[in-house]
Amino acid sequence: MFRRITIATALVFGTLMFANIVSVPQAAAERYFDHATRTWVDFDPAKRMRYKKPPPRKFNRRTVAISTSQPVGTIIIDTDKKFLFHVTGKNRATRYGVGVGREGFGWNGSVKIKRKQEWPTWTPPPEMRARERRKGVILPASMKGGVDNPLGARAMYLYKGNSDTMYRIHGTNQPWTIGLNMSSGCIRMMNKDVEHLYSRAKVGTNVVVIGPGKNSSKIYTQGSNPLTALFGG
Known about the structure:
disordered C terminus; 4 helices; disordered N terminus; L,D-transpeptidase catalytic domain-like; two-stranded antiparallel ribbon; alpha+beta; ten-stranded mixed β-sheet
């Protein structure tokens, strides 16, 4: 009788302990730089899904029909439509959703990728640090690459001639900002997308940026039906 009670008690106790272990997982501490409030913010587990809400499906990576005089390999960024096109063949491109510069930080022109980096270090330029300091936000002089880094998993550094524009095509630790005007002029992509582009865009690649309000039809026109055979819609 005693043996039976002991075994039963142990089973009940073990079940309760297991239930307790699996029912209350602790969310990992996470922080991100909120460009709306210009502060570093801790994730609120209760609001996690709001922060983690994915971008609209139209910003999913896909193969599309495109007409352009730009040669194969060129990257075309339409900042109004929030799309980046990587020309992969005649009348074909891979299209990615991007986040672009907020009001007053848009730009236009032709540049080249002169450097690439995996899990890049973020070094805010002095003018950015000074600008944010006036708002009461203290940016770090430098931040090593990692999951909390605003540059995300990859960065491609954009140059005009031999001069660093200080603009980058990079990943982000804020994927919900894809499709929005949120950056200081850089082009941000979802990490899985920037890794995909990074593996295909070579140093020396020409990047054509169509700035706010510019006529994109002078650079490219896109077919009405996406070609979804490779990546789907």
